[in-house]
Amino acid sequence: MPIGLHPRPAPQGTRPTDPMEVTEAFLEALASGEVDRAAEYLDPEVRYTNVGFPTIQGRADVATVLSGLDRPNVSFEVYIHSSAATGSVVLNERTDVINVGPVRAQFWVCGRFEVRDGLITVWRDYFDNLDVMRGVLRGLLGAVVPSMRPEPPESPGSDPGR
């Protein structure tokens, strides 16, 4: 399990309803490659936005987008650096990593999740396009020159991104 992501397990046979626990369980399922399980944490009418791109609405459409992570030689990692919750809203600062074959692209993301009745109703990710581009370029370079391959963050308190 990636550094900084330690979901508190719900009692056997139950699902978490606490917004922080729901968010962590959702991200953990994605990082475990269990897209179907992750989708179970999404409200049927969820709104998912990568700021700067069109919003995707509905569990089925978001699951279709996430299914891109469920392919051979593709994986997702998440490293949470900090999280805060107020009521039904959870904010987290994290490093997301998308691995495609030998290419490891990692970049800073700030996520905002709204949770109602144990389901994510809004998922909005903010990121710096330049940082994403830099992460992809470094990942491509690292596929050719292994010593340039980005390393995972050292600890939950370390700087996000590279």
Task: Write structural notes for this entry.
The chain is of the alpha+beta class and 162 residues long. The protein has a domain at 19-95 and 109-127: Roll (Nuclear Transport Factor 2, Chain: A), CATH 3.10.450. Helix content is 26%, strand content 36%. The chain has helices at residues 19-31, 35-39, 59-66, 129-144; strands at residues 42-50, 56-57, 74-86, 89-100, 103-116, 119-126. The chain has a six-stranded mixed β-sheet. A hairpin with a 2-residue loop joins strand 3 and strand 4. The longest helix has 16 residues, at 129-144. It starts with 18 loop residues before the first helix and ends in an 18-residue tail after the last helix. 30% of the residues are buried. The mean pLDDT is 87.
Helices, strands, pairings?
Elements: H1 19-31, H2 35-39, E1 42-50, E2 56-57, H3 59-66, E3 74-86, E4 89-100, E5 103-116, E6 119-126, H4 129-144
Parallel strand pairs: 1-6
Antiparallel strand pairs: 1-2, 3-4, 4-5, 5-6
Spell out the key features of this protein.
4 helices, 162 residues, single chain, alpha+beta, 36% strand, Nuclear Transport Factor 2, Chain: A, 6-stranded mixed β-sheet
Q: Mean pLDDT, as a whole number?
A: 87
Could you tell me how far the N terminus lies from the C terminus, measured between alpha carbons in angstroms? 19 Å
Q: Using only CA atoms, what is the Rg?
A: 15 Å
CATH fold description of the domain at 19-95 and 109-127 = Nuclear Transport Factor 2, Chain: A
Quick one: CATH class of the domain at 19-95 and 109-127?
Alpha Beta
- Parts with pLDDT < 50 across at least 5 consecutive residues: none
Order of helices and strands: HHEEHEEEEH
Largest sheet: 6 strands, mixed
SS class:
alpha+beta
Oligomer state of the chains in this structure: single chain
Spatially, the strands of the biggest sheet line up as 2-1-6-5-4-3
Tell me the number of helical segments per DSSP (H or I, 4 or more residues long).
4
Strand fraction equals 35-45%
Dominant shape: globular
Give the helix level as a range of percent: 25-40%
What is the count of β-strands? 6
Using the 3D structure, state the CATH architecture of the domain at 19-95 and 109-127: Roll
